[in-house]
Structure prediction request, 561 residues.
Amino acid sequence: MTSSEPASTGAVDGARAPWWRSAVIYEVYLRSFADKDGDGTGDLRGLRSRLPYLAELGVDAVWITPWYPSPLADGGYDVSDYRDIDPRYGTLADADALITDAHALGLRIVIDLVANHTSAEHPWFTAALAARPGSPERERYFFRDGRGGGESPPNDWISAFGGRAWTRVTESDGGPGQWYLHTFAPEQPDLDWENPEVQDDFDEVLRFWFDRGVDGVRIDAAPAMAKKAGLPDAGHAPDALFESARWVDSPHWDVEGVHEILRRWRRLADGYDGHRLIVTESVVNGPERLARYVRPDEAHTTFNFDYLHAPWHGPTLRSVIDATLTSLAPHGAPATWVLSSHDETRPVTRFGRAETGTALMGTGSTGERSDLALGLRRARAALLLTLALPGGAYLYQGEELGLPEVEDLPEDVLQDPSWERSGRTVRGRDGCRVPLPWSGAHPPFGFTADGVAPWLPQPAGWAALTVETQRADEGSMLSLCRAALRLRRLRSDLHDAPLTWVEDLRGRPEVLAFDRGTAFRCLVNLSPEPVALEDHGRVLLASGPDDGSLAADSAVWFDRT
Ligand code: GLC
Prediction:
């Protein structure tokens, strides 16, 4: 154990199992968490001041979205310097202090590594633009001549934010020139990971942060990092949707070379003490392809998007859970269970719609009405389901408060690149990124100094959802979440006992029932009817009213000893 490691390991005994095998990791979207310097944007000192809140909530680690210098063309996922902190968020000294404080509170720190692309303002890219076609500066990226005499993009690949994945540059002689590849926005040029300079530099970036004490990295857009040689057409129509979960043999997604990069990083991470974590964001076609990211010499864990995108439907959730566990078992990797993130519609809103499943980044307002009371009941039940499953779990800031998606943000504040790239038809992800309500009766609800406008406006109705209000209410989502995390910490069966389905409830496929070991049972009623409760044991925690039956859209944890 080094001095930079957390003082306590929570319920997970570091000597027995690496901490990440069953950790609950809280995602902080830094811009929207807490603002200390009063500019309306969250920052590191704001996060640092709220670390005791996270420790008290009972999570094990904090994943911080990109904190690097960035023009914010994609909320920080466009990095212009991988070895510094954006001045809007603070300084390297603030990051060091944050890591130290977090460790003293028993919290680990995971940071985002955006390696598929840099910002267009990264010195490598500005040098590439200034250089000539074919120069080494251009070879760190994908610069190619266009087709049709240069007029058309080099191939038919599409961007995740809409439109073609290629942009044409103006050469230094002022004429139209080559095209460069960007899987995301034009301000996010893709790096060529075949280039040894790129590989070596990112080794240094990883060391830079591991040496400073970060406990893990979340690999952004991992399946994008390798491309098929020759960059052949993918067969995409220009207006095709970016549906990576459906693609098979894509030349620009989930290509074999990605795994080489992960192996390199795994070797590097394993050279450090303290079980440094590599977790990938990999939206790929099904659990078998996903499991390839967590082979024993690759990432330790990977986000489970099939679970995140699943509808509120018992048999579907059960089959996603089974497929996840079955596909990961041969590699010995734990599952991760995720319901929410800075890219996805908030669960309270999506579970209150008729269409409860969601597609990747198919977020924001769909125009479909949501019954938020129903959505909240389901989100509460889903929380107990998620925290009872074997493996690790992620909570996205505000999920513990049951925040809904903000669907009526004025158009002139929208910042997600999807909005402009879609010709202002897809509102994008800003609705799940609205700054947190901490206290008080009016915006900015303690997020920033009174009188300062947060970077996205908060709904006036959030007075009822502040941390302060919910702390004082035993029936709140926050209280439920704290109670669930406390129990999870205390019970070793929730860390290491396998899941067994309770088959005598099979006659009710809309009721999920499973045990973890012999002493713990979880029941979730996804049907519209209440279920009479036989003797399942002593109720530990209930998401709904505790009246002897399991109400529709509710969940209960039992102790069976
Ligand atoms: C990931 C991030 C998302 C970002 C994209 C491009 O999906 O979670 O926010 O827009 O990668 O970096």
Observations:
- The mean pLDDT is 94.
